[in-house]
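The protein record reproduced below.
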Amino acid sequence: MLESHLQQATLPVNLAQKASLIEQQWSPRVVAEMNDYQFKVVRIEGEFIWHSHPETDEAFLVLEGTLRIDLPQGCVHVNQGELYVVPRGVMHRTAAQGEAKLMMIEPRGILNTGHEDDERTALNNVWI
């Protein structure tokens, strides 16, 4: 598996193309790594669960559509081409009225549901 990731490292990553390969919504897939950080693409629609990541910040870059991030003090709308960082430990819920495609940047090993056990907890470290 490591060899295929090293081979991929010689080519640019087309984020839109990688996101189009994801069959199931709410299933982040790793497209690249840098140090201990993973770059993941995901397709979402509807609302996720409230959760937090006590050990790390979480970055969202919108590739397509509009992302809504619900926070305790209100919501933030993140449009295509925009980036938003949720600080560590802050409760949040991601949502999209229509389908949105995102790139998430977070340390390797972070679960998409934080420490919440939920049916939407995705397998971790799955490459596409």
The radius of gyration is 14 Å. The first strand starts at residue 29 and ends at 34. The chain has a mean pLDDT of 90. The helical segments are 2-8, 15-20.
